[in-house]
Amino acid sequence: MKKIFLVIFSLLFVFVLTACEKIGQNEFNQARVEGTLGAFSLKAPTNNGSVKTIPTFEWNASENAETYILEVASSTEFNQQEDAIYVKKAGISETSFKLFSNLKYKNYTYYWRVTAVNKGSKKVCNEVFSFFYEANLDEEIEYTIEHADEWEVHKDGSPVNVSIDSTNFFGNDKKALKIDFTHEIMNASNDITHDGWAVVTHHQEEEMYGVDAFYFEFYYSGQDSSIWFRCVDEDNEYYNAEIKVANNTKQQVIIKFDDFTLRTKGGTPIVNQKFDYNMIKYVELVFEKTFGDGTCYVSNIKAINFDKYRYMFIDELDFNEIDSDDILTENYDFEKDYSDDGKSFTMSYGGSIGGYGFTKFNINKFVEAKDAVKVKVEYTGTSSARMLLRVIEEDKDRWVYKQDLSALPEDGYIVIPIQAFTLSEYNGNGAREFYFIKQIQFGIEGVYQTGSLTFSNLEFVNVRDEVDNLYKASVGDDGLIENFNNYKANAELYYKWIISNSNKDEAIATNKTYQMGNNNLCGELTYKSDMFGAQYGLQFDKVDKGYTSISFKALDKSVLYIPDGVNRFSHLTDANAVLAIYIITEENQFKYVDQHLEGEWTSYVVPFSEFKVIEGEENAVLKSEDILGFGIELSYYYYLSDKKADPVYTSNNHVYFDDIYFTKETEASKTSVYKKITTDPTTQISMIDDFNDYETSDNVMDVWSIGGSDNYSALTLESNGEGNNCLKMQYKGNSESVSYVMPTIFAAGSTGKAIVFDLKGDGKNNTFYINIFVNIGGSNLKLRYYFTGVTDEWKRYTIGFENFEVVEGSPATFTLSSKNVPNIQKI
């Protein structure tokens, strides 16, 4: 009926535009004037004119008119529709009228018309005028920071202290709002997932015309909080955008209105689900999970015209725009060549590169809301090397992405999701915040020959715009969900896996160190403790194979945090992740929770009967044919001995997964894959491997793995000539080093002061390394002892822990000791 009415109304409107006719006879019983209504015309505002304030409407008189009707609308249909303006004023006795109703939209064209009325008839003027309601285009609108009482702390949030800082903290000759946090007082439920919420509100109503972004200067020093800038628009809907915090760093923040999303919760109104930013009623700073002490400063808040600040942003890298003083090198002075258009850069190297090198470009630019880096990579020389792309963020955290040159796509273009970059140097808060880029570094490693590496057309993009078949997975005929063997580069994992960002430490990669067989890969999933769970998911077409369970192998390498000074967590024996598994169907969501994963490779079988419904029909049954998705969630929360939560936010906790299958088993099980290495109480020796338990080389490769090029590396089981087995390790001179690795799983309480082994060389004066990898407090360290001139006769070596030096990781002064043996991850 509504559609029919609109069609009739439109036809009627077309008719009255062509002539003034009598309509609606006998509708005005109280009119005192009769007779035929005369023709009349509109005067002001003039047709197609422009006004900056709501105008006074004027028209010529119509003979015999008693009153007039004025209509103003944002549409020539002159009726009320969604998001439309329609104002109607009747009974006007004069030939002018000052409209006081709010015309919601500025910089907008409006239409107006007048109808003359008397007792006998109505007559619509044969003219419809339009005018442009022009806004006063303020390029910057400042939000005042003068008095502390202008900023209100939410009564239901965590306690914070608000004051005004007049010390010129940011060097901008402006006052700053200072917000101080104290150590979190837990709520009555002791639920740390809901504590640490604080809101500071500034009530300043502003019309927003000529501006399309917010700018402010910002500093935060404290725990790993999520911080949001939130606005309440004209119809009282809440919209917010996350502030990308560079911890302990004075930073500038620019957020476009288009980047704000609806954040209306808890009974607050949902009206049109549109950010009506033409009128902002008030702004807020929202802090989530602000545990611990900390301070925040905010200054120079203003709404701006983004185009005026676009020069501060980078979309594509132009090498010609970078001053020569802003180009640095590391470990090798490459010969550098740039294309005429500035989009391509080639770094050439000789045979004395020493394994790796970087060329570094100072950028100091913002990046708009993008989630990936796209670049074309070409090379000459060996394909066994790896290209490296490093990014230095505003807080000086350094992130790196590595990819084998042999794994480059045919066209050379790679799309690297930001989450695929891993932390290589910790200087700030250890969170991926590719919001402000201080420096981009181009590098190569694993090369000892001549060649070149060319990077072209680097730009910041969104993965959804670049990758086909994004987030599409499939289940194999044998029920295989994932075994991580088919990825050539870590970026590819992010095209398939759906990953959350609420944990702040989510990252997924393939790993060869902890794999369970030769040339096999496992998956490395990362999470941060005392945050919302890190979630990793796959979606696929329906599975219809009659499966009744899910099986997988997992190894938890989370590290128990030991604070400086008094150990608040001495009552804890481990900090292994709590695992949750989700299975999604079209109608329901099911969840299984394991209390803690094991610190050694363990095989799990979980029947569908163990899953509980968390969304959907309460009594739904999980059936194989209904499954559309699978997910993993990892979390760990620290509690004191009195069960009180005490967040510590440890980073880079890793859990390794492999061989994830849907299966037809019906009984739950948990089975250790490998034996633990224990210390003999009598000899105080921890036997790592003596090779006599292996029957074939294939058996060896179930435990040991090979690093380096597969073209010349090999590991085989041989006889040492004295009735015992040994390992034969192959290498190639003047080529990249090869490595042979055994993951080590030491039982708690294992001790030791040295590593002992028998070694026989080939007499070719090779260099032999012993690398020991240790994880301490979430930091991965590589310690090394090396020597040359290994003889061609069997010889026993004993190397005390004190002789190993840190070659990768921090702290560089770390000394391996007897008590650290359980922290050794591989040798």
Structure overview:
The chain has 827 residues and is mainly β. 4% of the residues lie in helices and 41% in strands. The termini are far apart. Residues 1-31 and 185-189 have low confidence and may be disordered.
Please count the beta strands (DSSP E, at least 2 residues each).
Answer: 57
Structural class of the helix and strand makeup?
A: mainly beta
Nearest-integer average pLDDT: 86
The quaternary organization reads as: single chain
Distance between the termini: 78 Å
- The amount of beta strand, in percent, is 35-45%
Q: Helicity, in percent?
A: under 10%
Stretches where pLDDT is under 50 for at least 5 consecutive residues are: 1-31, 185-189
**Radius of gyration using CA atoms only:** 35 Å
Count, helices: 4
Q: Major sheet: size, sense and barrel closure?
A: 7 strands, mixed
Task: Based on Cα principal axes, name the global outline.
Answer: elongated
